[in-house]
Amino acid sequence: MTPRNLKYPLPRSLFPRAMLIVIVPLIALQLVVAFVFFQRHFEGVTRQMTRNIARELAVAQQVIDTSPTAEIAQLRLTNLSQPLEIALSLRAEELRPGAHRRDLFDLSGRALVAEMADLLGGQLQIDLAADRRQVDVRLQTDKGVLRAVIPRSRMTVSNPHQLLVLMTATALVLAVIALLFMRNQMKPILQLANAADAFGKGRSVPYRPAGAEEVRRAGAAFLSMRQRIERAMEQRTQMLSGVSHDLRTPLTRMKLSLAMADAMPEAREMERDVEQMEQMLNSFLAFARGDQMDEVEDVHLPALLEEMAEQARRGGGCVETDIRLEPAELPTATLRRAALARALQNLLSNATRYGSRTRLSLRTTPRAVQFIVEDDGPGVPVDRREEVMRPFIRLDSARNQDRGGGVGLGLAIAQDVARAHGGALELSDSEALGGLKAVLRLPR
């Protein structure tokens, strides 16, 4: 596996990664300590105890060699068994040298067999598997096979279960302490991430830098950035509001003058021009107020959808609705109702202006909400869909301007509303109606 691929098995979140950094070395240390201890405990101590037994078996072998007959040797072995605490016997059987038996994971047994073979020679057969509480040793002599049955406890120490339990408990306690410490260290980072995410969705939640020095510095930088952005948005809104106020005064005078000059043939045309200028001014203000949105609230999605569709029908549009909720028992979402209504109104206005048939659909999942507006109009070329969502962009060749006034802010306002909620506005072709399909996707 290349270093480039090593990053993929790692957890995506910072907290599990930090826990891995703590727990993996802890486990590695425990394994190293256990390996070193067990190696010395089993092999070192087992070899020393085995040497003592080997000396006693050497004495028994010497007794056999000095006995004139096998019967006398057996009698002497019987008398020797009690003081040595070893069951000694002389058997007339065939020995299979080297045919030792032990369990696969019997670490102390491996050291025992190796030490006995070094001390007593190759004419030896040891069985550790028949009875785990005993060691069956068979040694070839000139008068037969010497069999010695030795308690296992005299040749190897018992497994240190208490030490294993202590090591495991210590590792668990250290892991819990590390978990609590890392959780406490992660809280300021999560608070900063939540504050930044909320600000990206247009909400200004209370935040106070805390935690380590580096996290505090990042939090202070975020607060400074948030203040500068909010100040810039406020200045922009105030400037455009002032411009609006200055422009509305002469527009109002013109409307009054035109109302008093109904007899003039040009009065109606000039009045329409004034109304269009006022509509353009309202669009500018709506776009300027895009960042200064209302507070979030629980919005009943099907009711909002039907309300917007009915409003478009009153304006002369042919609008059908399609609602699909998943799960059905969650018809509400926490959104900015006025801003969302303004975005849907702009999308429906575009759809009814350039198409004869419009469909407004609602799709919900536990994590997202989708408002889909489709029409049967001429649509928008694929290579210009990103461009058309920028402010003051109008595609007159594709969406005929003669069908209604507009300043190119409808899609820009809808996109701003989507981004303020942490969502997005996507344009594509409508498979059902053949025109433009606008999907306003918002997180719940």
UniProtKB/TrEMBL annotation:
InterPro entries: 2C_sensor_his_kinase (IPR050980), HAMP_dom (IPR003660), HATPase_C_sf (IPR036890), HATPase_dom (IPR003594), His_kinase_dom (IPR005467), HisK_dim/P_dom (IPR003661), HisK_dim/P_sf (IPR036097), Sig_transdc_His_kin-like_C (IPR004358). It is a multi-pass membrane protein. The chain crosses the membrane at residues 20-38, 163-182. GO terms for molecular function: ATP binding; phosphorelay sensor kinase activity. Residues 242-444 form the Histidine kinase domain. It is found in: Cell inner membrane. Keywords: ATP-binding, Cell inner membrane, Cell membrane, Kinase, Membrane, Nucleotide-binding, Phosphoprotein, Transferase, Transmembrane, Transmembrane helix, Two-component regulatory system. GO terms for cellular component: plasma membrane. It comes from the Bacteria. Residues 183-234 form the HAMP domain. Its EC number is 2.7.13.3. It catalyses: ATP + protein L-histidine = ADP + protein N-phospho-L-histidine. This is histidine kinase. It is an enzyme of class 2 (transferase).
